[in-house]
Amino acid sequence: MCGIQVLVSRKDVTLDDKYNEIWNKASEFNSKRGPDCSGSFASTLEVAGVEYLLDFKAFVLSLRGQITEQPLYDPKSLDLFLWNGEVFDGLKVDFDKNDGSELFKAILQNNSDESSILSDDGKVAIISSTSFKDCESGFWDEVPSPFIYCLDFNELANKEIPLSNALKTFEWAYGSRMDKPEQLILPFREIQLEPEHSTIEETHFKSDVDINEYLKDSDSQQYVESLKNMMMDSLRRRILSSVNSEFAVLFSGGLDCMVLAALMDSIVPKDKPIELINVAFANPRILKSRTKQNKRGPGNIAPKVNEYDVPDRKTGLVGVSELRECFPERKWLWIEVNVPFEQAQAEKSHIIDLLGPNYTVMDLSIGMALWFAAKGEGEMFSSGNCNPVENYRSNSKVLILGMGADEQFGGYSRHRKAFEMGGIKQLSTEIKFDVERISKRNLGRDDRIIADHGREARFPYLDEQLVDFLSSVPIQRKMDMRLPKGLGDKLLLRMLAYSLNLKVASRQVKRAIQFGARTAKMESSKDRGADLIE
Which intervals of the chain form a coiled coil (predicted)? Predict the structure, then answer.
């Protein structure tokens, strides 16, 4: 992972301080994304009688092979390559090789007469000498991910044409499975349905039985085993490709992260610890309410309230205890990140800068929790009964996250509501909608937030092959909204957790990070998630 930026300007136009400030700010942000090394490249280009100055800059977070400075340049073809991403599949990259260098070689071999620009998340930032009439949003254009984009300098030379017209798109041809190529989504299979619920024995869908009863169904066993194998493959791609790195899990003790941590135990070398990062915020509004409710005894004196005793801390402690019991040979490092209200407020404006283009109250609440968790500073406990290591900072360059599980396994309350209103077909439509929009709604934000600490976010639940597999599994095998919360939602994932002996985790109820860590409504109970940040 790295931070990359490009400046295109006309040689006959002098850039004012405003543009230089933006360029320098981009460098400041990107240097945090890529702390291991940096490089730059400058060139000129004349098109249609207009001479342009091209400035390229890259900051590298090195996770594979030798530290390799970018931009990469081939003097023979004059191609330049800035790579922000990871190769997990398709192109074979040995563990001792740098994936950016290997990808550049492959591009040169296959496109000797053409240059290609690839981006892992489809975001293109352009700084131009053209006036935007003081509209700051004009500097940035977030573009959909299923395309390769090319900046057409012939169009750019015409000042009367909007900058967006100069950005040409080349659609991703993904073979015959792409039924509707005009849709801006990855071409996974349609969500599969079974004809009716009655195809599965009703005795296996009672809320008063243990999850183990559901595993007695032979078809369920097969789906659980297939899910386990696919998830193991996804994790191997994201762990063995960076075998010399240490790994941390964003950890609430919930179902999604517990399954990831348990499966990681089979992949990460036994002599390496796995960090479990748990974040909690001192929310003054909730603390005031709790103190008022807890007043007891003579003088109406309230007992001392632990301001970091938030829901995710409680489930996290239960979760790490279960992991240590199930996998005693592993050294699980429990890291408590405690964030005072004043510290959260001090970093608020910086975190808002990383959210764009989505500036809602909910984005800030989630971004706040992710930013401090990714920072990874707090007290570390190497066992359940030891004294903590204070002022500990996570050593991991890679942070494993559970994003994508709720969207695919039916973890949101709106999924249950969709089923209640329109049955299995409306539920299927809602699941499909969530999977299609996750990259635009969540991933850009999460990547920018986490990379700000020089760490890379990896999302095993969003592995392309795993998503494709889950789309092929009948939706009634993944969830059953006739069952209560903590059972019917994410049913297939719960069965996998139970099969891994994570009996407590298999019944954990879904809780959003902003409520579990208590970043929601820190300043006002009237805040609504969809409201824009003031």
Answer: none
Where do the CATH 3.40.50 domains begin and end in the chain? 211-403+446-465+502-516
Question: Region 289-314: what's the mean pLDDT?
Answer: 72
* Cis amide prior to 71 (ω within 30 degrees): yes
Helix (H) or strand (E) holding 295: none
The H or E element that residue 447 is part of is helix 444-451
Cα angle 193-194-199, degrees, rounded to a multiple of 5:
160
Q: Cα 398 from chain centroid?
A: 12
| For range 384-410, the mean pLDDT | 92
- Distance (Å, rounded) from C-alpha 438 to C-alpha 172? 18
Q: Give the other-Cβ count within 10 Å of 358's Cβ.
A: 17
Dihedral sign, CA of 487, 490, 493, 497? Answer: negative
Helices 444-451 and 361-375, packing angle to 10 deg: 40
Structure tokens at 217: 């169904």
Q: What does the chain come to in residues?
A: 534
Neighbouring-strand partners of residue 277: 250, 335
pTM of the model: 0.86
Q: 386 Cβ partners below 8 Å, 6+ apart?
A: none
In the block, tokens 């994201």 appear at: 238
For 37-62, write each residue's pLDDT tens digit: 999 999 998 888 888 899 999 999 99
What are the tens digits of pLDDT across the range 430-444? 999 998 888 777 788
Distance (Å, whole) CA 421 – CA 430: 12
Q: DSSP class of residue 89?
A: S
How many H-runs (helices) and E-runs (strands) does the chain carry?
17, 16
Separation CA 491–CA 483 (nearest Å)? 9
Q: Are strands 37-47 and 50-60 parallel, antiparallel or unpaired?
A: antiparallel
Q: How far is CA 74 from the centre of its chain?
A: 33
